[in-house]
Amino acid sequence: MRTVRNTVDTGRTVVCTIHQPSIDIFDAFDELLLLKRGGEEIYVGPLGRHSSELIKYFEGIDGVNKIKDGYNPATWMLEVTSTAQEAALGVNFAELYKSSELHRKNKELIEELSKPFPGSKDLYFPRQYAQSFFGQCVACLWKQHWSYWRNPLYTAVRLLFTAFIAIMFGTIFWDLGSKRKKKQDVFNAMGSMYAAVLFLGVQNATSVQPVVAIERTVFYRERAAGMYYALPYAFGQVVIELPYLFIQTLIYGVIVYAMIGFDWSVTKFFWYLFFMYFTLLYFTFYGMMTVAVTPNHNIAAIVSSAFYALWNLFSGFIIPKTRIPVWWRWYYYICPISWTLYGLVASQFGDFQDELETNETVEHFIRSYFGFRHDFVGYVAIIIIGISVLFGFIFAFSIRAFNFQKR
């Protein structure tokens, strides 16, 4: 209450709702609007020192008990204006207020203040929001920074989960990435990539949904107050994920790459981190997008889980592209996971000339069985970036276009 009082002393008006406050808190207020059950006014006016004006008004009504010395005026006020007291006194406090001198003065004051001064002009603002679009973006990003920083149950737990999965996969697929003598060796290495994409990707998408749902509720309230536009909020929500996902990618990539034994070349290591980063990115944006297009995160989880199953089926690992029927192959091309596996496998194994037990090279096997070409990795990278941008754009558009508030 000291903070509220200090705010009022700067010339601002503060409106508070209170329920049976203590004497000290009640004394901190200047005026009181008292409503009876049903929303009718029974007192609107100054409290006075130690609630003297309030006490004077109600004690002036015939039959109302006088307040005892040291008694809380707020408690006394509620007791003497209760429905039982109205019935006992045979009065209606709302009607008494409407016929009082205090009500007449309040009406006169309202009439006076509702008329503009001579020569005054209507308020004019050159734009709807006080800050520029860039200023709103910076403010929303800064707000999201503190929101994420103060939410370790989301940010820290996600990183710990990633480290655990990395160590688990590293021990399960230990040194399999360096073996290229059999077709099964290639399948094993690809299996580590496939499992990581599903484990981490789905975990990212599902864990971000309740976070975005809560943030969206705050956004609805702050947008209604005219604080900022929808797109700066979406910008802040999207951009704040980038550094956290980069750290997540580094934790997973460094641990797994070393333990599985993939080829230690700068180019291949870069491509591995690149495709893992943008895979985690589009999964996270996908989770955010499903929240933005649905009323709550529970429905979003149901909707998104259906697509996880389809993405898993058409990823190209269970059934490679070359063996998918032509009439279903179109879904392979729009499945995000298929492009992730394409980039990971082609960048790691697509240029190896080691011979397998069938006397064909690893490069030839990758191209003939999976349809992956090493010289197409750059285009795959562009597609992966495009998928992330697409999901982020749909999230921003949906936040702007859809409003699931029930009030």
Automatic annotation (TrEMBL):
Source lineage: Eukaryota, Viridiplantae, Streptophyta, Embryophyta, Tracheophyta
Q: Which UniProt keywords apply?
A: Membrane, Transmembrane, Transmembrane helix, Transport
Q: Which residues cross the membrane?
A: 153-174, 242-262, 269-293, 299-318, 330-349, 376-399
Domain ABC-2 type transporter transmembrane stretches = 136-349
- This protein's name: ABC transporter G family member 40
Q: Which organism is it from?
A: Abeliophyllum distichum
Question: Where does it localize?
Answer: Membrane
Q: Where is the ABC transporter family G domain?
A: 19-80
Q: Name one GO cellular component term.
A: membrane
- What is its membrane topology? Multi-pass membrane protein
Q: Name one Pfam family in it.
A: ABC2_membrane_7
InterPro entries in the cross-refs: ABC2_TM, ABCG_dom
